[in-house]
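Observation: inputs received (chain + SAJ).
Thought: call the complex predictor directly.
Action: predict_structure
Action Input:
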Amino acid sequence: MTKICVLGLGYIGLPTACMFATHGYDVIGVDIDQNVAESLDKGDVKIKEPELKALVQESLKSKKLIVKTKPGEADVFIICVPTPLNKGTDKADLSYVVNATESIVRYLKKGNLIILESTVPPRTTEDVLIPILEKSNLKARDDLYMAHCPERVLPGRIVKELIENDRIVGGIDRESAERAKELYKSFVKGDIYITDARTAEMVKLMENTYRDVNIALANEFAKISEKLGIDVWKAVKLANKHPRVEIHAPGPGVGGHCISVDPWFIVERAPEEAKLITMSRNINDSMPDHVFKIVENQIKGIRDPMITVFGVSYKKNVNDVRETPALRFIELVKEKYKFKIYDPHVKNFRYELTNLEDSVENSDCIVVLVDHDDFNLLDVEKISRVMRTKILVDTKNCLDHEKWGSSGFKVRILGVSKNG
Ligand code: SAJ
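Observation:
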């Protein structure tokens, strides 16, 4: 029986470990954080994803998944640790990948397969992982199989997409790729495409960069539309009627641990060439400041204004606040104004969260930063009765503006300049 050791039990590692555990493999799930291991053992799953909790409980109950803080011997090692951006250098912080790789060296045996799932700058599998693994005195290609198999799942749909999405498997040689493909075939229903490791690394980064550049274009269209007196949302909708056009949605910026980070991994390897990618990142990062300017224009003349932020997660209907553009926006607000925050999904955030009633009491301006479905179920009349000034800034164009308007709100939508 093949034994798999999954390193890192986060958003990707945990569901991946469970997938293998529920498809016949014996899995050791390793997380160096004692708290993660302890709470998982109690069946307490901190990551809120549909179906995940049941999957974890099933895996643990059957003992096919065992959670530990240190790795052990296995046939396959899968590394799923974070690769955050080092904010000082704008380069990938590979320390988690390096530490995880070093932690398995002593357990390696001839014939082991080592898979890197973490998103990394191109050539990391070859230039960083191979030298570490070869400290075991085993040689990559001769004794060890290695592959980069990037995860491609969308937060909020992780379990479903793990099963259904196509996968890219990049081996350091053909045999490595074939072996990794065989493994993933156990639960992946999508197609599995084989390539080399550095192409797979680049493919992953290209996917997220494609999205980032397209969102930057949409954000630029929003700013231009405001200047020229055009409704960007209507214009985008019509432009997208063209069979080969798919403009993305503008918004208050790009968050999450993927799209706002990964393009920098290309820039770090080819800064001279990556001009469009760099500019797009900067455009998206400028959006909270742009929204702040809109808000300041709206509240001009109000004495000691109170601003209410609706939504701080990085996107709709999730509790994930990693890299959320709301943080930069709140930091700008906090310098000059009073503020309150309401988010029906988020429980932990750097700033205090309040309930709906408190958040709107005596407020002068609601700023919607996230298009949570719950915001469309709000009792607008009730909110309007307790607000001091009725201003709504909708950066996602997600609310029923007629309804808010008829309750007395002055509505300003990002990308639509009619109200100044
Ligand atoms: N956003 C916009 N406008 C849009 C689309 C998104 O402003 O038109 C914003 C969102 O509000 C959010 C950010 O972009 O702040 C990213 O959200 P997302 O839903 O586009 O993507 P993520 O970060 O949740 O997940 C992405 C996915 N990649 C692609 O769609 C190419 C996912 O498949 C990847 O697995 C994931 O990154 C990852 O782990 O790399």
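Thought: report the result.
Final Answer: Residues 119, 151-155, 207-208, 211, 215, 248-249, 251, 254-256, 258-259, 314-315 surround SAJ (CB under 6 Å). The CA atoms of residues 78 and 99 lie 13 Å apart.
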